[in-house]
Amino acid sequence: MDSFFVYSEVNEAYTFIICIHHYSLFHLEDYMKRKKWLLLLIVIPFLIFYLYDQNNTLTKSSYTVRSDKIPDSFDDFKVVHLSDLHNKSFGQNQQKLVDKVKESEPDIIVITGDIIDERRYDEEPALTLAEEMVQLAPVYYVSGNHEMRSGKYDGLIDIGINVLTNETTLISNNDASIQLAVIEDPSPSNAITVENNLQQTFKEAENSQFTLLLAHRPEWFSLYREYQPDLILSGHAHGGQIRLPLIGGLVAPNQGLFPEYTSGIHEVDGSSLIVSRGLGNSLFPFRVFNRPEIVEVVLKTN
Question: What is the pTM of this model?
Answer without folding.
Answer: 0.86
